Amino acid sequence: MIEGTAHWCRLLGTSHRRRDDSARQETCAGRDHDSERQTAVRRRWPDIAAAMRALVRSYNEGAGIDVLTVVDHTDSESRDLILEVVARDGQTLTMELAGAELCVRSNEGTAGAPDGGRRWLTFALTDEGMAAYALQHWLSQL
Length: 142
Description:
By secondary structure, the protein is an alpha+beta fold. It has helices at 2-63, 127-141; strands at 68-72, 82-87, 92-98, 101-106, 119-121. The chain has a five-stranded antiparallel sheet with strand order 1-2-3-4-5, covered by helices on one side.
């Protein structure tokens, strides 16, 4: 009986080792995927920021005065990618890279809004599409 039990224990141990190895591989693959996404967004960031500046320029031209200002808090030594659009009345829209996700949030009284008024942008959009999506609702509320 002990010999059969030992065989069963060995098979169970082998099964658990394979399960654990598979879980480790999935975890590593997920980290690699997130790292690749973050690298891709970092490469796109200058174009996203340029698209945001272009849209702000267009808005200001339409308004006839400089209502909005773009402040890029990104520097070459920082790992943080943060772009802020500031309205004359102090309202702000912030777009920032959080891990491998692009988060947009505003300060215009969104207390009580789900996720504190945060929205997550999809990378399926073009750079211009991301800038436009980030600005659209916020601008209509000014």
